[in-house]
Design a protein that fits this description.
Layout (H helix, E strand, L loop, with lengths): L5 H6 L5 H4 L3 H6 L10 H19 L1 H12 L10 H4 L1 H28 L2 H4 L2 H14 L9 H29 L6 H29 L1 H6 L4 H10 L2 H12 L5 H16 L12 H6 L3 H5 L2 H25 L2 H7 L10 H34 L1 H21 L1 H4 L3 H16 L2 H7 L1 H4 L5 H23 L7 H22 L8 H4 L2
Helix pairs in contact: 4-10, 4-11, 4-14, 5-13, 7-10, 7-26, 9-10, 9-13, 9-14, 10-11, 10-26, 11-13, 11-20, 11-24, 18-24, 18-26, 18-27, 19-20, 20-21, 20-23, 21-23, 21-24, 21-27
Length: 502
Amino acid sequence: MITNNYVELENQSFEDYNEIVIEEGELRQLPDETDHYFDWQTIAIAGAGFAIDAYDIFVIGIILPMIYQVYYPDVNQGPTQFISQHPWWDASLKTTTHLGNIVGQIGFGYLADKLGRSVVYGDEMIIVLISTLGCTFISSIGNINILHWLTFWRFIMGIGMGGDYPQSATITSERSLTHQRGMMIASVFSMQGIGILLGSLISLITLTLFKQSVLMNPKNLDYVWRIIIFLTVIPSTVLLYFRMNMTESKRFQNEQVQNIKLESLNVDQDDTQIELDANFIENYSSFTNWFKIKKNQTRLIACCYNWFVLDIAWYGLTLNQSKILFQIGLHKSVHESIYEQQLEIVIGGLVIALMGTVPGYYFTVYYIEKLGRKPIQIIGFLVISIVLLILSLFWNTIHNSPILFVTLFTISQFFFNFGPNVTTFIYPSELFPTLYRSTCHGISGAFGKFGAIVGVLLINPFFNTHPSLVLFIYSMFMFSGSLVTMIYLPETKNKSLEELSE
């Protein structure tokens, strides 16, 4: 008898628990259905959230130039100079969401282990919905200008987005068959690529529809960016219904039953004849005790470090795509209209997404069970490191050739996603025991977002004046990620979650 709610488990009599507990052998073979089962519903529900999250996260690089143009125009009626005049303000706006991510990943990661995956799944989407509406309708009020309000609502939005990471990863991992687990988790995370692509496409369509209005008056960009943000409200509302009705995974139900048994028996220290699960009692009775074990320390620290260095470069480059494209002189001339410059930013992002970002995600989905997580992560880190090193060493030549730069930049984007951007998400959902799986994923992800803050706020503002140095720093971080993966992380392909957490 499998119940759908932890509260129901608490109301069962102690004699009923033996009927609820799933044997270890069953868990190794059968997560929820039959051997040929591929849980498309889980992929759709978890993946749709990632598409929305990615849309909201990465579209900021497109809409901020529009906001600056509307509210901080150039005194000579030309393109706004806000980014060059206030690089730290621009960086702060792009990292606010990541601060919220850290809160959401740690908080929701803990709650999903404490209360249950299905109990809190959907709450993060409510936060994203409310904050999306907040971002859409902001305006300056008194001494609080529009950028202050945008900062506030993007932080709240980040909490909801951050909560999605550990919950969706853990739910997908626990519902997967061993030989399909990597493919399923990668399929969920690959929806991030769809979100990035949709962000560029919808921005292109919306801007094109407002072409005449923007040409007549650039302040009409105010309508464009608000529409771009608002359009995620409808799919988010639909997704909320499905997430609120998700059932609990059998693995988590089994873990909770084990805990209830331990509490109900209330065994005295002298009753040493009763054996429940000595390994669980000794090693997993608290997160602190579990973390004291060297193998667990090494794996969690390695996951945290790899996600940290990845996001330094990934977000440092991706969220500043528009700045980079301007830096290499992608715009045709200083005399083109503001509309044309905004259009080139959108098209540049769309080209990179189509050529590198999205294909990289789906190469990972296809090859993850063939090659394994470890080789993909190592090769990805190394290729990115080499590409960024080439850009750094030959910047003076390459930045004068937009086609060459975009080609190399696209290669790096491909290997970010056919590489560590996906595998750093997969590893924490596989390596740790059910009792702490969501917590560990949240901690790992939080370190990643801290890396994003370092990359965007502390390193990338120097790109305008020292581009070669910034790219070199990113390259070295990528190389260190390959070494840590090589030395400290195991291959998880074809191993059950129970084997990996032993």
